[in-house]
Design brief:
The chain has one helix at 20-26, and strands spanning 2-7, 10-15, 34-38, 41-43, 58-63. It is mostly beta strands. The protein has a 5-stranded mixed beta sheet with strand order 2-1-5-3-4, with no helix packed on it. Strand 3 and strand 4 form a beta hairpin. The longest helix is centred in the N-terminal third of the chain and has 7 residues, at 20-26.
Length: 72
């Protein structure tokens, strides 16, 4: 069985009982490089494994990009 969720604005189906950490793993996303927003609230990394996705959950993956400085 599956549940319907929204990931970065796109409707998707995931396995019932899937955790946020399992979702990241299924997409080859390392937890260290992403912040997860669940239903418009930042989810702390320690909760990724214990948070089970539910019907109509809204997930956003936020990536932080490092960059170099400008030389003047």
């Amino acid at each position: 069985m599956s549940v319907n969720i929204i990931i970065n604005g796109k409707k998707e189906n995931v396995e019932e009982g899937m955790s946020v950490l399992a979702l990241l793993s299924s997409r080859s996303i390392r937890p260290e490089v992403v912040t997860v927003e669940l239903n418009e609230e930042i989810l702390g990394k320690p909760k990724y494994n214990e948070t089970i996705l539910k019907e109509r959950d809204k997930i956003e993956f936020v990536y932080y990009m490092g960059g170099g400085g400008y030389a003047f």
